[in-house]
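Key result, reporting period 2: structure in, sequence out.
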């Protein structure tokens, strides 16, 4: 449920400020600047969701802005729609273009993504310039004075109108920030592969992030079209996209109040510099450069580092979920045990060009067992895990899950089936708290949709609190409840591995694949990790364990498959494996051979 405090800060105070603004600044120039501020702010709120949360760099937002501006102008002037309706439709049209850009740039990241978006912005800019019949080109086209319900909106009323929309969109964005949508945006922005193995269809979520962001840019453009009753293609150039991005970064990318500050800087600074009009761009550029070097986390980021402001920090992590610190026994919520064949690898091969990372491997994993996969370095263990989790599609053979062929499933599809994994090279969501990391694991269990989250209905906060409690319980199981609100990347290595295990458990998996869960951990941490695996085994969870520490393998595995040079060389119980000369030979010269021969001694 939304609290009274939220209404006061999010709606009440902004409304009063908006209404009172003309009492203090009642001249045409200031009102015009305020309008520009509010329009730009709406665009920045959307860009902040895309860049700040999802880490998708866009330098093409001017394209969505232009699409919004021309669509609303044409829908109003040519089609004859009401200006407000046309602005909303323009937002939707821009959102469709957002989805297209997302689809076109699915595999592009960082600078490559920036290039794709620049190309899109430039394309729209060229069309605006050249398609003179429709856009009027540089000479521009006229729009009308905006009117609502038959009343023409004067300059002040139009500012109030834009402000009202800005307040509504801010409230929506804040709700996205604090719920599972913001969390999912942040998750795939941090690690796409980890998001996928937790059941998140990253492609669809990217499309959503781009569409939402483009919608707000489109609405901003639509509002701009009626600000001066005139638009021209000269407005829609790359430098505007750059200004939008600078506002996000300088304000504090991914923070809730960053957009206000960033917009104030890019709109306000030129006002103060008007006396130096000849040097204006140079001074502006210089100030921005210095600010970016000195304040890499933006203005909000710099302030939140000061202890006084820490409590106001809103950077990505929402930790105010009212967790119960009770003494109940935390229980592991696992699916009903499955007997018999759970997973079958039938003649699975994974060849990279001429290299046979795994070749014609047959493995059967039985329900309720811990199945170890071992082998010397480079024997194909990680490749097997990548095939099992859908990260690689095998070049040969079939993967059967409870008898169903899942060979061609994407990682999120495999996760939806109930298989998840941890990573040898940790893949935590570094911008999130430990608790939030685990909450992402519940992805496939969340029921509320986008609109409900946008409005943050009672159902949403109930669901959030429910899963926060469950996440907290999982952290108690792995002994990390004290760390719940710490940033995941601040934890020691071994504890980060436990967070990944807790996050995987949140999926309520039928099969959990642990890829070298003890790698890089200290002996004390290894003991903790082994204890957790043992308890999961006792609770009946089916596990595939890839591990170099023979002590762990021999202690907890029911059955072991040994790989060497991509081939299965031996399979059986720990005792069988330990005494098999082929295994000893495969490991000969490696440091594990002593452990292997020593048998099931415990760690300590
Ligand atoms: N994406 C890839 N492209 C090309 N070769 C690869 C790729 N992934 C793995 N390999 C190669 O496949 C072989 C098996 O590697 P894999 O990482 O599966 O072994 P591993 O048993 O997990 O080794 P380690 O114990 O060192 O983690 C190695 O020769 C590796 O170089």
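The corresponding designed sequence is given below.
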């Amino acid at each position: 449920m939304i609290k009274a405090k939220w209404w006061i800060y999010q709606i009440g105070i902004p409304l009063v400020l908006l209404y009172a603004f003309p009492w203090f600044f009642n001249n045409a120039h200031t009102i015009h600047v305020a309008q520009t501020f509010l329009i730009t702010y709406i665009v920045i709120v959307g860009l902040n969701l895309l860049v700040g949360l999802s880490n998708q760099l866009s330098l093409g937002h001017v394209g969505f802005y232009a699409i919004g501006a021309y669509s609303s102008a044409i829908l109003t002037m040519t089609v004859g729609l009401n200006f407000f309706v046309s602005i909303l439709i323009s937002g939707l049209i821009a959102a469709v273009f957002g989805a297209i850009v997302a689809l076109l740039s699915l595999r592009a990241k960082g600078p490559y993504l920036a290039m794709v978006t620049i190309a899109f912005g430039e394309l729209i800019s060229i069309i605006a310039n050249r398609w003179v019949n429709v856009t009027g080109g540089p000479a521009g086209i006229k729009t009308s004075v905006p009117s609502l319900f038959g009343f023409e909106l004067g300059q002040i009323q139009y500012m109030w109108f834009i402000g009202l929309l800005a307040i509504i969109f801010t409230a929506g964005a804040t709700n996205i920030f604090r719920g599972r949508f913001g969390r999912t945006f942040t998750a795939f922005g941090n690690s796409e592969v980890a998001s996928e193995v937790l059941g998140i269809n990253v492609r669809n979520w990217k499309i959503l992030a781009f569409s939402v962001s483009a919608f707000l840019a489109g609405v901003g453009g639509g509002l701009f079209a009626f600000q001066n009753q005139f638009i021209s293609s000269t407005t829609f150039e790359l430098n505007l996209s750059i200004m939008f991005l600078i506002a996000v970064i300088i304000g504090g990318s991914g923070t809730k109040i960053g957009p206000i500050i960033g917009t104030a800087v890019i709109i306000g600074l030129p006002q103060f510099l008007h006396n130096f009009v000849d040097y204006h761009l140079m001074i502006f550029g210089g100030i921005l450069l210095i600010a970016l070097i000195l304040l890499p986390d933006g203005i909000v980021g710099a302030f939140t580092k000061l202890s006084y402001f820490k409590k106001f920090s809103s950077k990505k992590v929402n930790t105010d979920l009212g967790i119960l610190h009770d003494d109940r026994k935390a229980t592991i919520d696992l699916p009903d045990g499955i007997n018999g064949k759970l997973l079958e690898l039938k003649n699975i091969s994974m060849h990279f060009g001429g290299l046979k990372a795994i070749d014609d491997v047959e493995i059967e994993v039985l329900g309720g067992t811990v199945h170890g996969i071992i082998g010397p370095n480079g024997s194909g263990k990680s490749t097997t895990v990548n095939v099992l989790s859908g990260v690689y599609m095998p070049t040969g053979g079939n993967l059967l899950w409870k008898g169903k062929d899942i060979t061609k499933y994407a990682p999120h599809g495999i996760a939806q089936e109930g298989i998840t994994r941890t990573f040898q090279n940790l893949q935590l969501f570094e911008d999130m708290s430990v608790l939030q990391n685990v909450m992402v694991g519940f992805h496939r269990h969340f029921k509320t949709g986008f609109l409900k989250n946008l409005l943050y209905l009672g159902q949403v906060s109930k669901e959030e609190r429910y899963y926060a409690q469950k996440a907290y319980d999982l952290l108690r199981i792995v002994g990390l409840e004290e760390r719940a609100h710490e940033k995941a990347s601040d934890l020691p290595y071994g504890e980060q591995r436990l967070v990944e295990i807790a996050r995987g458990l949140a999926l309520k998996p039928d099969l959990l694949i642990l890829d070298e869960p003890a790698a890089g951990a200290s002996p004390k941490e290894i003991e903790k990790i082994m204890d957790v695996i043992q308890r999961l085994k006792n609770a009946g969870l089916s596990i595939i364990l890839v591990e170099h520490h023979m002590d762990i393998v021999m202690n907890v595995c029911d059955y072991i498959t040994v790989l060497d040079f991509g081939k299965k060389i031996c399979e059986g119980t720990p005792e069988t494996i330990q005494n098999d000369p082929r295994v000893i030979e495969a490991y000969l010269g490696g440091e594990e051979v002593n452990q292997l021969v020593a048998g099931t001694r415990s760690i300590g």
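Residues 214 and 573 are 57 Å apart (CA to CA). The chain has 26 helices and 14 strands. This case is discussed further under Risks and Mitigation.
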